Amino acid sequence: MFRKTRRKIIFTVVLSLLALLTVTLTTIYLSNRAAMRRTDEEMLETYVERYSIDGQAERPEDQGRPDSGPIGQPDDLPPEPPDGIAPNRDEPRFRLSTFYSVSYGTDGEVLAVQNGNDALQSEESLLAIAEYAVHSGKQSGSKGNIRYLISDCGDYTLVAMIDSTIGDDSQQVLFREMLAIGSAAMIVLFVLSVFIARRIVRPLEENDQRQKRFISDAGHELKTPIAVISANSELLKRQIGENEWLSNIDYENERMSDLVRQLLVLSKAENGQMPKEPVDLSKLVDGEALPFESVAFEKDVRIDSEIEPGITVDGNPNQLRQLVSILLDNALSHGTGDVIALSLHRERHTAALTVSNDAEEMNADQLSHLFDRFYRTDEARGETDSHYGLGLSIAQAVVEAHGGQIQAEYRKPRAVFTVTLPVKKTEKT
């Protein structure tokens, strides 16, 4: 039980931190990518503002140089705007970036092609990208590592492009570094979550062990006074004969003895003290159901059994018999219908045992407490009731000791108890 609790704590902590880390890193990555895209778009807008298809075109730092060439030459970029007001741009990055452009006339004729400072792109590839941009129907976008901006300049249409290879490579490096850092952080957080889970669960586990030890010790200590009371009652009967008071003493003493016996059984089941062996669960369930058929007949109840033969599990026969007995007794004691369904069948690598019966409606809160010790759905039951609310707790302890699971459901109008146990692995021949 506590192992499952530790796993749940670790899973919850790791999942929460993973979600937080994923959201944080994704936000950083996308924000950085969006910022770089906005910067590229701003520089393209600057390029369009400075572009002139006529006359000389110069870089800002090259203005006044005698060797400044015409726009078609890769050494030059368009000059500052004629009004002399420089746009608010990142000039160093603008100067270090590689721009391309293709100009189209009103009739679609290519007027000019600029392939950048170092001719990294051929005119054919630039024309292909420009054609793609024009036919995309979008004013701006990207194709591969090239981002473009289409501008209507009146007498001609300009497709301005910028090479974003360096920026995209930086994004990839950023992504890999974030992935590496995130993975390392998750490993550290996983180790911390294991440590935290153990620290959280340890007091609960120690308290549970103390409770189990108390139940076991108290059960063994109570056996002696119960036996003494029974012996003294028998001696008094021989001396003074039967009377109402001695009968009450015997009845309550018997109830106390039964309660102590159930507590000791629960303690042994929870501590897994019973040895295990291969058990034919099909025969065991069928055999345990037979005695209940006569009890059910007296209550005008029928037990419908559907048991698949040949299902074998590793377990303790006595505990498994008690498990079946508890489920059938619970159905007979608390059922409201006249049919109890008992089934056992194989589901892949598990054996599924199901007991269902008509019952009063139970809400989710009642279902969640059914396996608690001393819990009874009907608190109005009197002292004459021989059930102490330990039966289903014992059943759960037996199932968990066998590595299985038990659950209760209410499928109107029936209460359904399902037990799954791992089947014995057979050797391959």
What series of H and E elements makes up the topology? HHEEHEEEHHEHEEHEEHHEE
Low-confidence stretches: 55-89, 380-384
Strand order, main sheet: write it out: 2-1-5-4-3
Give the % helix.
40-55%
Number of self-contained structural domains: 2
Brief synopsis:
By secondary structure, the chain is of the alpha+beta class. It is built from nine helices and twelve strands.
Provide an overview of this structure.
The chain has 429 residues and is an alpha+beta fold. It has two domains: 2-169; 274-422, Heat Shock Protein 90, CATH 3.30.565. The protein is 53% helix and 18% strand. The protein has nine helices and twelve strands. It has helices at residues 2-50, 91-96, 123-136, 165-240, 244-271, 281-298, 317-334, 364-369, 391-401, and strands spanning 99-105, 110-114, 140-143, 146-152, 156-163, 277-280, 302-307, 312-315, 339-347, 350-358, 405-411, 414-422. The strands form three sheets. A five-stranded antiparallel sheet has the order 2-1-5-4-3, sandwiched between helices. It has a five-stranded mixed sheet with strand order 7-9-10-12-11. It has a two-stranded antiparallel ribbon with strand order 6-8. β11 (405-411) and β12 (414-422) form a beta hairpin. Mean pLDDT is 79; it is low at 55-89 and 380-384.
